[in-house]
Amino acid sequence: MITAKTKLAGVIATPIKHSISPLIYNTAFKKLGINAVYLAFETKPFNFAKAIDAIRAFDMLGVNLSMPYKQKALKYMDELGSEVKLVQAMNTVVHEDGCLIGRNTDGIGYIKSLEAKGYGVKGKKITVLGGGGAGIAIIVQLALKGARKISVFNRKSDNFSSLKKRLKEMGEQVEIEIELFNLADEAILERELSNSFILANTTNIGMGKLSLDSPIYNSQVIPKNVLVTDVIYSPKKTKLLQQAKHRGAKTMNGLDMLLYQAAASFFLWTEKKMPIDLIERKLEVRK
Length: 287
Known about the structure:
Largest sheet: 6 strands, mixed
Number of helices: 10
Shape: globular
CATH architecture of the largest domain: 3-Layer(aba) Sandwich
């Protein structure tokens, strides 16, 4: 029951009306008897600063952030978690007595989603599509979990060179090879995928206005023995996952990652463990 003491949490992004995060968090709040409610806030870029101010103004528990705000939010924080300093992107704001703390649970959520399905990454070659906020968070966790090599593919842009340098330095820090390639180079993509254990799409290609698109133009480069994962969960089967299935590859959408990164954020806000089994049963029909 909502009362005068009910706390507020939510997710800030655009687009976000497809989000199932309210179902996840509100189910957890209810099960654990926490007097709080979670809402989705469709927020345009020109209103983003005001939305961040509202966290303090409304004394919220905090918020989750999704595209396109995972990097833009950094400058509004009072403190940053160690993982955020490394990744330079965040997906969670924790509000503590007027102090806004930026945290990142994306990478943890991705690894947990793999482990829940019995997939380990230690000693494995991984190919990642995208070098944005979610991509870097996942790359860092893959490296920390002992991946053998990570090949990253990104579209050529003004920051391609700086991203290449950053990934190289990151690889040197954790003593594994992390290399950046041009996503448009189909021959290199096919070569790198040929001995990869996992292909991970961390871009937004496949959702919203891009729901009919895939980051891979020629599906023939996808080998049947690779696990193809997508951070996108709506639609349930992105164009990329459809391509992979047609090629005979195993697939996994972003629903489990969403659940496990949500569980990590939930603990940061409440210091309580999210009832994952209960929520998984509610989400089962959505997979």
